[in-house]
């Protein structure tokens, strides 16, 4: 999605009263290799599908880079947060979301859990020859709506078209930048024994929704992905519990992998209470049928926060007032010994919750 006209593309002269060049129009129903060839077909694809949705003042004259005012960053913080992510979910559309929404929220959330205010995103798409143009329009419309909800602008990007069989419909890579407020220093090394572990709501929904949507198992499920932006939840948490030490979104590998990463990074143990972990009854049944452990299922709108016990109740109260945090819960605490994640089970015993070995469910995000 290069925002400058490709070499060889026809340039429509500007009228003085327009202020912007005229946009090309795409008549094709399916993507062909010509749409990645740098000529008029590519220009029409970019203009009609991408620019028409994403155009904003930061795009300026559609140069090869976005030019962003530093004043907007310095007004929001004293450090720049920068992240990038790739999204290859299968199927493209699933209950509660789609690839476009996932690409925006996934990148926004990586910024938000570091305490940053997300500001700008880039978007690069790899499109397989033969993809329906209408599919692209739906994904781009979803990205536009998700960006508006998350309060960010998509300001630059790139488009590549590959031959039939060289990709699987559409892959998206996004990068995001934001500003971290002065004085805020979240990090895994800040975690201390005695910290409580708080999650903002029910876990495992995204992984279950994707698996059911694939249709391979002929199972029907009412579960929808928890795909959502976390910025508002994180900001509410940090306002109520300003000494929060660390936050991590529980994406691939689920809660179990997230907590093991924290334990490995600190050398401390983590003790969980199974009865406190919020899970849908439908999810429990779904996992029992398939022999899955819900603690390893991916999430796209859930995080684990490590908060001093003295601020835990204030944190819970604040989260429960925000959409997506109504079922926030304390599920465990950081301990000084072991360097392992241990869970007290519903049956009165204890078990090790280890790092996921292999991939429980590929192409999840």
Q: CATH class of the largest domain, anyone? A: Alpha Beta
Compute the separation of the termini in Å: 21 Å
Q: Please give the count of helices.
A: 9
Oligomer: single chain
**Hey, roughly how much beta strand do the residues contain?**
15-25%
Quickly count the domains: 2
In short:
With 365 residues, the chain is of the alpha+beta class.
Characterization of this structure:
The protein is of the alpha+beta class and 365 residues long. It folds into 2 domains: 65-180, PurM-like, N-terminal domain (60s Ribosomal Protein L30, Chain: A, 2-Layer Sandwich), CATH 3.30.1330.10; 188-352, PurM-like C-terminal domain (Phosphoribosyl-aminoimidazole Synthetase, Chain A, domain 2, Alpha-Beta Complex), CATH 3.90.650.10. 29% of the residues lie in helices and 21% in strands. It has helices at 40-54, 70-76, 99-112, 133-150, 205-214, 231-240, 254-266, 281-290, 312-320; strands spanning 79-87, 93-94, 97-98, 117-128, 153-162, 170-180, 196-199, 246-249, 269-273, 303-307, 329-335, 341-344, 350-352. Strands 8-10-7-11-9-12-13 form a 7-stranded mixed sheet. Strands 1-6-4-5 form a 4-stranded mixed sheet. The radius of gyration is 22 Å and the shape is globular. 46% of the residues are buried.
């Amino acid at each position: 999605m290069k925002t400058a006209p490709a070499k060889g593309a026809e340039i429509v002269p500007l009228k003085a009263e327009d202020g912007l060049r005229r946009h090309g129009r795409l008549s094709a129903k399916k993507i062909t290799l010509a749409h990645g060839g740098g000529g008029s077909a590519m220009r029409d694809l970019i203009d009609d599908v991408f620019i028409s949705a994403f155009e904003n003042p930061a795009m300026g004259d559609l140069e090869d880079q976005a030019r962003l005012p530093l004043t907007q960053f310095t007004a929001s913080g004293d450090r720049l947060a920068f992240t990038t992510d790739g999204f290859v979910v299968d199927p493209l559309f699933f209950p509660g979301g789609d690839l476009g929404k996932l690409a925006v929220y996934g990148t926004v959330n990586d910024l938000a859990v570091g305490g940053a205010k997300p500001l700008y995103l880039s978007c690069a798409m790899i499109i397989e020859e033969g993809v329906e143009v209408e599919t692209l329009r739906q994904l781009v419309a979803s990205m536009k709506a998700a960006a508006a909800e998350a309060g960010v602008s998509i300001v630059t990007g790139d488009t590549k078209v590959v031959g039939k069989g060289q990709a699987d419909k559409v892959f998206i890579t996004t990068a995001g930048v934001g500003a971290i407020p002065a004085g805020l220093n979240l990090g895994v090394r800040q975690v201390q024994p005695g910290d409580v572990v708080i999650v903002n709501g029910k876990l495992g929904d995204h992984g279950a929704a994707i698996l059911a949507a694939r249709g391979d198992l002929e199972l029907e499920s009412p579960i929808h992905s928890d795909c959502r932006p976390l910025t508002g939840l994180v900001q509410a948490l940090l306002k109520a519990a300003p000494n929060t030490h660390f936050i991590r979104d529980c994406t691939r590998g689920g809660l179990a992998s997230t907590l093991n990463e924290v334990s490995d990074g600190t050398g401390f143990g983590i003790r969980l209470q199974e009865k406190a972990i919020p899970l849908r009854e439908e999810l429990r049944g779904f996992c029992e049928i398939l022999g899955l452990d819900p603690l390893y299922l991916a999430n796209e709108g859930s995080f684990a926060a490590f908060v001093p016990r003295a601020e835990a109740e204030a944190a819970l109260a604040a989260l429960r007032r925000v959409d997506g945090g109504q079922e926030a819960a304390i599920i465990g605490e950081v301990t000084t010994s072991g360097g392992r994640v241990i869970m007290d089970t519903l049956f009165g015993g204890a078990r090790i919750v280890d790092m996921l070995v292999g991939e429980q469910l590929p192409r999840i995000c």
